[in-house]
Design brief:
Layout: H1 3-27, H2 32-48, H3 50-59, H4 65-79, H5 86-111, H6 117-135, H7 140-156, H8 174-192, H9 202-226, H10 228-242, H11 250-260, H12 264-274, H13 279-300, H14 308-327
Helix pairs in contact: 1-5, 1-6, 1-7, 2-5, 2-13, 3-5, 3-13, 4-5, 4-7, 5-13, 6-9, 6-12, 8-12, 8-13, 8-14, 9-10, 9-11, 10-11, 10-14, 12-13
């Protein structure tokens, strides 16, 4: 199987996994308090456990990609069982999400170690899957579709490329890792903060989601063509020009979100460059930093923060990326 076909398969798998997780968790929610508990449990399993899952994958060389990916898909299938305890359902899909991201994410990293486009394409589909799974969580036909997709993906993942035997490169640069973690947390924080002033109808949310999807998708492609430095400088200039004017305009906000998310594959790629011997751990660690941004949002949600502060945060974020990219050359 060609690399492009493998990438397409894992990208579609990412879409199905995130859509399934959203549909399963939301479908089982009966109250606001229950939703809050499920949200905490799911995010802990799906994101906070990823560094551990990645570290195990890197250390246990006999583990194959199939072990993580097929186990993940099987856990999600079990999550659709109608009579399963709802707490067990949330636990299973959270772990399933964790295993898929580490397994499939590491596969994409190892397949194209010097390119960013595959990373951007792979991560982009998750945003669309999460949105559609949320909107159609109570639609039986969508659940049946996702179940059939999961079964098909299990069959398609029976044969996967071999893992690389040795990971060579410089030793881990923990200072760089910490800076990249801060970058990811800042982007997550900005994404969760309620900055906009327009009504978020379903069509508008879909439009914003597609903007995020396009940004992640194009981020790696543009970096491979023009280089990380040029993409970061141009995107930062665009955001500086439009950011403060976009809060009341959903179309402008969608465009800004697209530009902001160009950096998603960049931080994933640079994290791998800083942890060259640990691709699974690097991917999992990057994902877990999203939770830091979420927690920061919950801490400051009742504080009135001037909107231009967020523009400063984005500029700082861009500066860190440029510094890290130069140090890793």
């Amino acid at each position: 199987m060609s690399k492009n076909t493998e990438l397409l398969k894992q990208t579609f798998g990412h879409f199905c996994v995130d859509a399934s997780c959203a549909a399963i968790v939301i479908h089982g929610t009966q109250s606001f308090w229950e939703a809050t508990q499920f949200f905490v449990l799911y995010n802990f399993c799906a994101f906070c456990l990823q560094p551990l899952a990645g570290w195990i994958f890197d250390k246990v060389k006999r583990l194959r990609f199939q072990a993580y990916i097929i186990t993940s898909l099987a856990l999600l299938l079990i999550g659709f069982f109608p009579n399963l305890n709802v707490w067990m359902r949330v636990l299973l899909v959270g772990i399933g999400n964790c295993l898929f991201h580490v397994g499939a994410g590491t596969l994409v990293l190892e397949s194209e170690k010097k390119k960013l486009a595959p990373l951007g394409i792979f991560v982009s589909s998750g945003a669309v899957g999460l949105f559609l799974g949320t909107i159609f969580a109570h639609t039986e036909a969508v659940s049946v579709f996702l179940i059939l997709c999961l079964i098909g993906l299990i069959l398609l993942n029976m044969e996967l490329p071999e893992r690389l035997k040795n990971h060579r490169g410089k030793d881990t640069q923990w200072g760089i890792v910490a800076l990249l973690g801060l970058c990811i947390a800042i982007r997550s924080f900005m994404g969760f903060m309620p900055l906009t002033q327009f009504e978020k109808t379903t069509p508008i949310l879909l439009m914003i989601t597609l903007g995020v999807f396009i940004g992640k998708f194009l981020g790696g492609v543009l970096c491979d063509k023009f280089g990380i430095k040029k993409v970061v400088l141009v995107s930062t200039a665009v955001v500086i020009a439009l950011f403060l004017f976009s809060f009341a305009n959903p179309f402008l906000w969608t465009f800004v979100q697209m530009i902001v998310n160009l950096s998603m594959p960049i931080t994933l790629y640079l994290m791998y460059r800083a942890l060259p011997k640990y691709p699974g751990f690097s991917f999992g660690l990057a994902a877990s930093c999203l939770v830091i941004g979420l927690l920061a949002t919950l801490v400051v949600k009742d504080i009135d923060i001037p909107t231009y502060y967020f523009l400063f945060l984005f500029i700082i974020n861009s500066g860190i990326i440029l510094f890290v990219e130069r140090k890793l050359k």
